[in-house]
Amino acid sequence: MLAPVGISLEELQLAARNHGLPLETLRHDVTPIGLHYLLIHFDIPQVDARTWRLAVDGLVERSLSLTLEELKERPARTLAVTLECAGNGRALLSPHIPNQPWLLEAVGTAEWTGTPLAPLLEEAGVQHAAVEVVFTGLDRGVQGDVEHDYARSLPLADALRDEVLLAYAINGQPLPPQHGFPLRLVVPGWYGMTHVKWLRSITAVGKPFDGWQQAVAYRLNEDTPVPRMLPRSLLVPPGIPDFLTRERRLSAGPCLLEGRAWSGHGPIERVEVSVDGGRSWGDATLGEPASEFAWRGWSFRWDATLGEHVLACRATDASGRTQPDEGEWNEGGYCNNAVQRVRVVVTY
Predict the structure, then answer these.
(1) Per-block mean pLDDT, blocks of 10 residues, the chain (348 long)
(2) Which of 165, 223, 266, 299 sits between 20 and 30 A of 286, alpha carbons compared?
(3) How far is residue 200's CA from residue 206's CA, in Å, rounded to a whole number?
(4) Chain mean position to CA 168
(5) What is d(CA 176, CA 127) in angstroms, rounded to the nearest whole number?
(6) pLDDT the model gives residue 292
(7) Residue 202's closest CA among 132, 133, 154?
(8) Which residues make Cβ contacts (< 8 Å) with residue 206, sequence separation at least 6?
């Protein structure tokens, strides 16, 4: 793994506000709330649930204004979903990209409880002229010298998918402020920027949304938006770490390597593991995911021998997509799903 260079004080400030998943906690099928990765673009808004309302408007036959309690009275669904930041792996790309300096830990899997979005849109009566649905949060700030509310859109067909939720609980608990209280969008299979937090309005529109977070941010290039989550596998670092370098130390002998793999393009069908830096690969044993939208556990038995080793893992999904050896650079540092490598020293 190359060391990120040129981290600025501004980026360290972002890193202090946001946090990733400690990789050793990949052992949990469902990530504890406080360990789930977190990215907050602007400020956490202060919301009074007694006065908060969700507006459903735009190209609809009937505009709606719903309280949190009214949403909770609607049919509910709980779904285990893996969320990953589109910038996961950004700090490992070269040349350096000034932004939230993620390494590999911007991921988590939670059980989200809420009401499905599609029946709400059907109740409002989305008009035939609508092509997208815009989701706007209460968080406001400046990015790219543009002051705006955080907002993202989905094509109407994607917004009507059965698995899209308006979530008010995580792991059986009410949403905490940092995760979008009182209501957030959950769109399984999509990178985290899509899951708008502190939701205040849902608006059907008749042309593609051109808000800053949609038309300028989260694009691989001018013509290509960030796609659904690409396949990725992460390894639980074995042994014990050096405090500063995080280099792993372990003893010789049988060692069970474990990890998780996921993709937004279909189920994970294969995970391969290398103990020699990628020169040779063996198939891992796959576990069963908590849902079709949750990561899949895997394990691989290794007889660790004395010396230095570079462990690696790579995932392949049902669409045939496989992790590359190296990530492709882009100005935003998005979608770097390059193979993870972990250096270990077997000492005794």
Answers:
(1) 69 94 97 97 96 98 98 98 98 94 97 98 98 98 96 98 98 98 98 98 98 96 94 97 94 97 97 97 96 97 96 98 96 97 94
(2) 165
(3) 20
(4) 18
(5) 34
(6) 95
(7) 133
(8) 59, 129, 130, 131
Alpha-carbon distance of 343 to 241, in angstroms, equals 11
Alpha-carbon dihedral of residues 295, 17, 139, 213, nearest 10 degrees?
Answer: -60
| Element counts in the chain: helices (H) and strands (E) | 5, 22
Q: How far is CA 206 from CA 127, 129, 157, 217, 218, in A?
A: 9, 6, 13, 21, 22
For 323, the 3-state DSSP assignment is coil
- The pLDDT, as a whole number, for residue 203 is 98
Residues 202, 71: Cα–Cα separation, whole Å: 14
117 and 166 in contact (C-beta within 8 Å)? yes
Within 10 A of 32 (CB to CB), how many other CB atoms are there?
12
Q: Which domains does the chain have, with CATH numbers?
A: 9-225 (3.90.420.10), 232-346 (2.60.40.650)
Instruction: Phi first, then psi: give them for residue 23, nearest 5 degrees.
Output: -60, -25
Predicted local distance difference test score (pLDDT) of residue 7: 84
Which residues lie below 8 Å from residue 98, measured CB to CB, with a gap of 6+? 8, 10, 11
Structure tokens belonging to residue 254: 């049988």
- Contact between residue 319 and residue 266 where contact means Cβ atoms under 8 Å apart: yes
Q: What is the DSSP letter of 175?
A: P
* Pair 139, 148: CB distance under 8 Å: no
DSSP H or E segment with residue 141: strand 132-143
What's the CA gap between 297 and 306, in Å, rounded?
Answer: 27
Q: What is the pLDDT of residue 6?
A: 72
